[in-house]
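Changelog-adjacent note: as of this version, every example in the card shows the full chain rather than a window. The one below runs 152 residues end to end.
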Amino acid sequence: MASNTDTMGSLPSGIGICTTIPDLLYLPELVFGGLVWILVACTLVVPENPQGWVMFVSVFCFFMTFIWMVVFACGAHHNKSSWAAADFLYHGIAAFFYLSASVALAKVTLDLSSSSNRRNYKLDISAVVFSYVATLLYFIHTILSAIRWKSF
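Full-length structure tokens:
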């Protein structure tokens, strides 16, 4: 694995996104974001407003992270510092979105705790846990992207 000092001043392309920090986090972000999407979609979406926000965030971040990963894998960034700044900005927004969605989902789940439908409650608990893990991954990616951007 490449050291941090070698990789923080440049943007990887190709298979390099699987060996450099913070780009190693793309796949876990996709996995945990996809799990949130699937688990919330499997439950009864009541109330609609907070659950709709959670679905929007998980689907939006899943597809944008996938597109972002493909752009980096193809090398379309041409190792420009503006792409490093955009990477920082995107992951910061995604972390904020996921944090707001996680809090909303946790509130809905707490409200369901007295419900008779234990299946939806258990699925929502799992979704809350994975949502907070996704939030943490995006937050770490944001910090590491900021460090990389500043080292350009």
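Structural remarks: The first helix runs from residue 4 to 7.
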